[in-house]
Design a protein that fits this description.
Elements: H1 12-18, H2 30-49, H3 54-74, H4 79-93
Helix pairs in contact: 2-3
Length: about 110
């Protein structure tokens, strides 16, 4: 029997049972949940970085968004609040559409 010890999507136990298997799960406390979401974010980013085509990349980006949304709730916000913060930063600093790459800055002392 494989041991996973990782945060999973809510319907995974149901899918496991529907496939004729059994599983053991537990519910995390808030601190554990946040820590596992952070681990999951790293995992999903790594999977995105290892994707080999646009389809895989989009799947992994969707997973990243799901984790980011869950983390927004951990930080007493919701995806709408997160989007408001994102828009505010984009208005103040811009986005990444222009593909600007900073090489260096010379201090004017």
């Amino acid at each position: 029997m494989p041991t996973y010890n990782k945060l999973i999507r809510d319907r995974i136990p149901e899918i496991i049972i529907n496939n004729g298997n059994t599983c053991l799960t537990t519910t995390l406390n808030e601190r554990g949940y946040q820590a596992e979401l952070q681990k999951k974010l790293k995992e999903e980013v790594q999977e995105y970085l290892e994707s080999v085509n646009h389809g895989e990349a989009l799947e992994e980006l969707a997973d990243i968004m799901e984790v980011v949304q869950a983390l927004s709730y951990v930080h007493n916000a919701d995806p709408d609040k997160l989007e408001t913060v994102r828009i505010g930063k984009a208005l103040k600093y811009g986005g990444f559409e222009d593909k600007v790459f900073l090489v260096d800055v010379e201090d004017q002392d």
